[in-house]
Design goal:
586 residues; alpha/beta; 10% strand; elongated; helicase activity; ABC1_TM_sf
Length: 586
């Protein structure tokens, strides 16, 4: 219902602004295209006149028949060349515009906040950025240029027939208006059908993407048949909606065909009457007949393109919706953060993912710059959530979070995230080379720097075993990394970024004892001279931190200097040290 409301609200000026934004950079090509269209329209109108002359000259001026015929053939060939050139430019302009829009939308999606991404599956967004935008290519090329061109042709034809005989002109004008008026209600029937069809296809893409990403669970549970059941339900919906939308589209061509038959009959009857009364020549009747079919063809093209536009309309509506989805995390005025390690402070900060459930309650603490905090607590107590607030994956609902003394809402996301390095529990690797996985496709980082970081992480031996060094392709058919190795790569990424605040979320939990030992020293080096937050389930991971915080149900249960807490027999931390973290916390 909300969607329906939104759809009804896409204003005409949005189409204009879309065209203006994406066609202005290509204005010279657009001007050339318009000129070519004019030439082509002129030729379309001129050619039947030649044929009329030809027919009228058959009886008396045989001598000029051959030149007329040759000129006619020449103009037809010229028209075809002009049309081919125009269609090349039109496709070029439309795909350039479409790709520019695609890039803008992709960037918008990448920048949208985490709550948006939790609510929309990647499959759904891929369908928007790919499927819906492909629909728009039609709008940019065929609709704009063909419809505009054909409309001009239509006006030209009607003006010319008026000059031949005002009664014929009036008849064609009435016919064109009638068809255009009839199309309006048909359009209202089609738009929702097209939209449903696109939505059904987006739902399938989203479903399949989600299932493929959990393929391991599906295999291990033998759940293929259940997946296929849901799959066939979705494909049935596609069948139903696509059938309905395509059949609705047929109404247009049927209306046009019937209209053409009526118009030709009316024009020929009128022509016969005028011929008999000596007011019209046979050639003029032929020209009128030709114009009637040309006019009908143009109406057909216009309505067919409007028909196509219906799908573009549905796409535009869905793209508009996505494009105007505001980012919940808004850049501040870019108050600069101090250089060097960054202090952290939470002031009465509260947060919940949903309004009905608060996850962190009224947190207040300060962590001086250059010190490291070990964050402990039961599963689900809010450790990861606290870390997410630091890099503004989400914003607090009450209170504030300050980094380097600055409220993080006063900085920009770029500034903030540039200064923070994060290693999360789930390391995402791309199907790309080790180099690209380390640098996030940034070519300015040299191979020497990468090798230096690999060496610092004591990964030289592992690196030597890679078949193609930094060019080794990982994931998606390439070299498969263990989760430990993947985490080591994530460490290397943070090393390269050289941040002033480092967050390690369960960073060592997946490492086997040997690998863990391997990078222990590297972690110390990574945290040295920086502020650090280490979320851990292992007490070993918080051995060298300066401060300890224990969270319980989203509140601070204990916070203080690690050594002091360790030696205070009444502290929760010293109790953990004696009993072992696993029994008490997990
Ligand atoms: N994206 C999310 N949307 C809604 N609720 C969430 C989301 N992420 C976490 N939660 C909920 O918030 C609470 C705190 O989760 P959080 O991941 O911060 O805990 P944690 O202490 O890091 O747990 P763990 O030790 O298992 O990683 C949990 O109840 C969890 O279900």
């Amino acid at each position: 219902m909300a969607q329906q409301k939104m759809i009804a609200q896409v204003p005409f000026r949005y189409y204009v602004s879309l065209l203006k934004t994406y066609l202005t950079p290509q204005r010279f090509k657009v001007i050339l295209l318009v000129l070519l269209l004019f030439v082509s329209i002129g030729l379309d109108i001129l050619n039947p006149q030649l044929l009329g002359h030809f027919i009228d000259s058959v009886e008396n001026h045989m001598i000029i028949l051959i030149p007329i015929a040759l000129l006619f053939i020449g103009l037809v060939i010229a028209n075809q060349i002009v049309t081919a050139f125009a269609s090349y430019i039109s496709e070029d302009v439309s795909w350039q515009a479409t790709n520019a829009l695609r890039a803008d939308l992709a960037l918008h999606c990448l920048n949208l906040d985490m709550s948006f991404h939790k609510a929309h599956t990647p499959g759904e967004l891929i369908e928007r950025v790919n499927g819906d935008i492909a629909m728009l290519a039609n709008f940019f090329s065929r609709f704009v240029f063909y419809v505009l061109g054909r409309t001009l042709l239509l006006i030209g034809i009607i003006a010319l027939t008026f000059s031949v005989d005002w009664r014929v002109g009036l008849l064609l004008l009435a016919f064109a208006l009638l068809i255009l008026v009839l199309l309006r209600p048909l359009q209202n029937i089609s738009v929702p059908r097209f939209r449903d069809a696109r939505q059904a296809s987006a739902a399938l893409a989203s479903f399949f993407e989600e299932r493929l990403s959990s393929i391991e669970d599906i295999h291990s549970n033998g759940a293929q048949s259940y997946v296929m059941l849901a799959f066939s339900r979705l494909t049935r919906r596609i069948l139903h909606t696509a059938r309905l939308s395509n059949v609705t589209g047929r109404y247009f061509s049927s209306a046009i065909e019937i209209g053409l038959a009526l118009a030709v009959a009316a024009v020929l009857t009128l022509g016969a009457y005028l011929l008999h009364s000596g007011q019209m020549t046979l050639g003029a009747i032929y020209v009128t007949y030709y114009y009637t079919t040309l006019l009908t063809q143009s109406l057909y093209v216009i309505t067919f393109q409007i028909n196509q536009m219906q799908s573009a309309t549905a796409s535009i509506q869905r793209i508009t919706e996505l494009y105007h989805t505001p980012n919940a995390i808004i850049d501040g005025p870019d108050v600069p953060l101090p250089s060097g390690p960054l202090a952290i402070s939470f002031d009465n900060a509260s947060f919940g993912y949903t309004p009905d459930k608060q996850v962190l309650h009224d947190l207040s603490f300060e962590l001086p710059a250059g010190t490291t905090l070990g964050l402990l607590g039961r599963t689900g107590c809010g450790k990861t959530t606290l870390a997410r607030l630091l890099y503004r994956a989400y914003d607090v609902q009450q209170g504030s979070v300050r980094i380097g003394g600055i409220d993080i809402r006063q900085t920009t996301l770029e500034t903030l995230r540039h200064r923070i390095g994060v290693v999360t529990q789930d390391v995402q690797l791309f199907h790309a080379s080790i180099r690209d996985n380390l640098t996030f496709f940034d070519p300015s980082i040299s191979d020497e720097r990468l090798k230096q970081v690999i060496c610092e992480l004591n990964l030289s031996q592992w690196y030597a075993s890679l078949p193609a060094g930094l060019d080794t392709i990982i994931a998606g058919g390439g070299v498969t990394l263990s989760s430990g190795e993947a985490q080591l790569l994530a460490f290397a990424r943070v090393f390269l970024q050289n941040p002033d605040l480092v967050i390690l979320d369960e960073a060592s939990s997946r490492l086997d004892p040997v690998t863990e030992k391997l990078i222990e020293g590297a972690i110390d080096r990574l945290l040295a001279g920086r502020t650090g937050v280490v979320i851990a389930h292992h007490l070993a991971a918080v051995q060298s931190v300066n401060a300890i915080m224990i969270l319980e149900d989203g509140s601070i249960c204990e916070y203080g200097d690690r050594d002091k807490l360790a030696t205070d027999p009444t502290s929760r931390f010293s109790h953990l040290l004696q009993t072992g973290l696993a029994e008490v916390i997990d």
